[in-house]
Sequence to fold (154 residues):
Amino acid sequence: MNGWLLLVEDSPHDRELALHALRKGRFPGRVEAAKDGVEALDLLLCRGPWAGRDPHDLPRAVLCDIKMPMLSGIDVLREIRANPVLAEVPVVMMTSSAEDGDLEICYALGANSYIVKPVEIEPYFATVLDIGRYWLVYNHPPRDRRVVLVGGGH
Fold:
């Protein structure tokens, strides 16, 4: 299995929980984690520390938090959809925000999915693993299309 996921999560605790869930569940792909929206876009657009990264090696999915400092998940989604290279990369918003306004704007901007993070640890682990497996194992994107997962949060 080839491919990888991008987890975008500003909370070190939540980021580590998601990574642990994927490791514990023997997730079959690579996971890159970005600590905020700026770092996620730098990685995706091969800027800064990622300037030497292959720009064609896009993640199969981005799991993205919404409420983040500097650049919100909504802003990250907007930038991904505005960029011709990234526009078709699937983005999953995973957040603790169940606000209708957040949900509506994310779908209006082209989010592929909107997941409200479970509060309890075992359902949270199962949700993260299920999302990762869906986009990397079960989903079959067109050959020239990649998926981007923008990571969970609060």
Observations:
- Residues 121-138 form the longest helix (18 residues).
- Residues 91 and 149 are 5 Å apart (CA to CA).
